[in-house]
Specification:
This protein is α+β, with helices and mostly antiparallel strands. The protein has one domain. It is built from five helices and six strands. The protein is globular and about 40 Å long. It starts with a strand and ends in an 11-residue tail after the last helix. The structure holds zinc ion. The site of zinc ion has 8 residues, from strand 3 and helix 1.
Length: 183
């Protein structure tokens, strides 16, 4: 069985400073018992001030994540999977006993050098599950992944963004929908 530990506060909902409690899509309660879900946070670095800000964050239950993925084109998902496999192979062996969220899982780029990056966390109730998760993806890998997406997939992601992002328009402008691919 995978190691589990309480969700670290850096993966909390930044508005409430508490663990995410509901799925962004179906609103199911995530903190009850055995519910599995994923957290994604997209963060950008404002170089000018040397600070980072969260531009989009959410939690999505396993069922919704599965159905979201099924809406992506098979071709896109296949390409992205192949990209993951080849990158992970190049970086082998990754020591999963000491997972690092300070650098990109796929390219090894330190997040301190990335202008944008995302966190991906797999949770069950109030715990996070350690496997390849939690991990971070840098702007470098995000850009390479964006190249692999079909028009159809990009449109799906764009719809997702307009439906679920409810922050200010100036932040909405900063969000590249291609970076919302569930990874
Ligand atoms: Zn859901």
């Amino acid at each position: 069985m995978s190691r589990q530990e309480p969700i670290s506060d850096q993966f909390y909902n930044s508005e409430t400073n508490e663990p995410f409690s509901h799925c962004i899509v179906c609103s199911t309660n995530l903190l009850s018992d055995e519910t599995e879900y994923f957290i994604e946070k997209i963060i950008r670095r404002v170089k000018q001030f040397d600070v980072t800000e969260i531009i989009f964050e959410y939690a999505m239950c396993l069922e919704c994540a599965t159905s979201f993925r099924s809406e992506m084109s098979v071709e896109s998902l296949k390409n992205v999977e192949a990209y993951f496999q080849s990158k992970l192979k190049q970086r082998n062996p990754i020591d999963l006993t000491k997972p690092s969220i300070d650098s990109c899982l796929l390219t090894g780029k330190p997040l301190s050098e990335a202008s944008e990056y995302s966190y991906h966390v797999h949770c069950k109730g109030t715990n996070m599950i350690h496997s390849v998760f939690p991990y971070a993806i840098s702007d470098l890998a995000m850009d390479e992944i964006a190249e692999l997406l079909s028009k159809e997939t990009t449109d799906e992601l764009d719809d997702f963004k307009s439906k679920y992002f409810n922050g200010p328009p100036e932040i909405a402008e900063l969000i590249n929908p291609k970076r919302l691919l569930p990874l």
